[in-house]
């Protein structure tokens, strides 16, 4: 249908609007005035500030989706690691019925992680005097509310993926980050007007942001084209003709997944530590606080690890080699079969090394530079990386859907 693309876009926008509405529904029994104090001054750049950025300011309002989509992402990470470790679980993903069971396990694990985090956050808020009702009752109510919110977000993400445009989980994070940009700009303008920030610093921040965006777009569109040749028999005198084509291998094979995974892994312990009243736990939280050397070094290492891990899952050189052999294709100068697989694997490994270092640098360096200037979280490298990558990916999918619609129209009119 010609209207399929329009319907998918409207459906996606509708679900994103529903997500933003959920961000304004507060958890019953919480003192919002006390919550606001957690995000003022220097606290805007701690672990809660990082989590608040990904939740679209839901944590600063202590809404029912305060935990965001991160429990689902954490569950997905654990399942991917288990699938790579245990062959039986990995084989389950490749089967149609098995994939449904695999996703169901992720959902159950998401519930478990959400309940644990919700209880920890609720007890932390009660210990800090941010509760208006009995602490035990608040823990029960808040846990049920946050679990409901996270399940709704998970459902919205799945609906966008299946019926809308693009990856639903990535679009939810994208919408959360983008929704905070106007407030970040407002705070920056206010800081300039009150002489808390020099205008030249603002120009330097903008320069870093635009350079970061340019680098992301340049590398995301970069690819290595491996030439392949097909032998085709022509109708004239049974001659054989060689048809040249290529296999495009992206520099960044893992996409936006590594920085999202790294953020999810770091935020889980940090939010739990931050909500604790224990003196030693607070010291550990301060030691791992965003902006510090340990946090950025850990982010760098995690992004590199997840880039290699996810690329090994998303890019299968053996399948490409087998498909080429079945279709009569080959890489000039490389023997079909195992040699082709090794050749493609070597190219993918080198590109993944470059891509992982690019992702890790973008995820840490801009934030280190901008945070030293006293800017908001929303201008960090990870945020810019996610926004630009998701925007590019969504544009590709919209263009692909538009092309499919054009082919459908031509087919219906008999051209």
Topology:
Layout lengths: L3 H19 L9 H6 L9 H8 L15 H16 L1 H8 L1 H32 L7 H29 L4 H26 L5 H22 L2 E11 L6 E11 L6 H18 L4 H9 L5 H22 L2 H10 L2 E2 L7 H34 L9 H32 L3
Antiparallel strand pairs: 1-2, 1-3
Helix pairs in contact: 1-7, 1-8, 3-10, 4-5, 4-6, 4-10, 5-6, 6-7, 6-10, 7-8, 8-15, 9-14, 9-15, 10-11, 10-12, 12-14, 13-14, 14-15
Descriptive tags:
single chain; 415 residues; mainly alpha; Preprotein translocase SecY subunit; 3-stranded antiparallel beta sheet; 3 strands; 70% helix
Shape: globular
Strand order of the largest sheet: 2-1-3
End-to-end Cα distance = 16 Å
Order of helices and strands: HHHHHHHHHEEHHHHEHH
List low-pLDDT spans.
Answer: none
CATH topology: Preprotein translocase SecY subunit
Based on secondary structure, the structural category is mainly alpha
CATH class: Mainly Alpha
Radius of gyration: 24 Å
Helical content band: over 70%
Largest sheet report: 3 strands, antiparallel
SS summary, helix count: 15
Question: How many E strands?
Answer: 3
| CATH homologous superfamily identity | SecY subunit domain
């Amino acid at each position: 249908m010609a209207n399929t693309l329009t319907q998918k876009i409207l459906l996606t926008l509708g679900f994103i609007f529903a997500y933003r509405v959920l961000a304004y529904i507060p958890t019953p029994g919480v003192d919002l005035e006390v919550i606001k104090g957690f995000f003022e001054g220097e606290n805007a750049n701690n672990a809660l500030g990082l989590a608040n950025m990904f939740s679209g300011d839901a944590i600063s309002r202590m809404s029912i989706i305060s935990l965001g989509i991160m429990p689902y992402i954490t569950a997905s990470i654990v399942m991917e690691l288990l699938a790579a470790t245990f062959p039986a679980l990995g084989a389950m993903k490749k089967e149609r019925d098995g994939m449904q069971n695999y996703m169901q396990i992720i959902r159950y694990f998401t519930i478990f992680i959400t309940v644990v985090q919700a209880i920890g956050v609720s007890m932390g808020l009660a210990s800090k005097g941010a509760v208006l009702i009995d602490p035990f009752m608040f823990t029960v109510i808040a846990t049920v509310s946050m679990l409901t919110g996270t399940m709704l977000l998970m459902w919205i993400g799945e609906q966008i993926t299946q019926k809308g445009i693009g990856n639903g989980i990535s679009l939810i994070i994208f919408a959360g980050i983008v929704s905070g940009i106007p407030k970040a700009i407002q705070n920056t303008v206010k800081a300039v007007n009150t002489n808390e920030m020099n205008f030249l610093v603002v120009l330097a921040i903008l320069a870093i942001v635009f350079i970061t965006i340019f680098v992301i777009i340049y590398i995301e569109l970069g690819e290595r084209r491996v030439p392949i040749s097909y032998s085709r028999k022509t109708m004239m005198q049974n001659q054989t003709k060689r048809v040249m084509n290529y296999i495009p291998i992206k520099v960044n094979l893992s996409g936006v997944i590594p920085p999202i995974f790294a953020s999810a892994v770091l935020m889980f312990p940090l939010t739990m530590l931050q909500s604790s009243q224990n003196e030693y736990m607070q010291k550990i939280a301060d030691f791992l606080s965003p902006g510090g050397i340990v946090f950025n070094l850990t982010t760098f290492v995690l992004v590199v690890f997840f880039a290699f891990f996810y690329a090994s899952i998303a890019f299968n050189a053996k399948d490409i080699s087998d498909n080429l052999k079945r279709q009569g294709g080959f890489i000039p100068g490389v023997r079909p079969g195992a040699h082709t697989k090794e050749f493609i694997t070597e190219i993918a490994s080198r590109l993944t090394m470059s891509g992982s270092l690019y992702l890790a640098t973008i995820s840490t360096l801009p934030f280190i530079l901008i945070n030293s200037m006293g800017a908001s979280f929303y201008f960090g490298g990870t945020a810019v990386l996610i926004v630009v990558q998701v925007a590019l990916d969504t544009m590709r999918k919209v263009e692909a859907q538009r092309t499919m619609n054009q082919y459908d129209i031509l087919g219906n009119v008999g051209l």
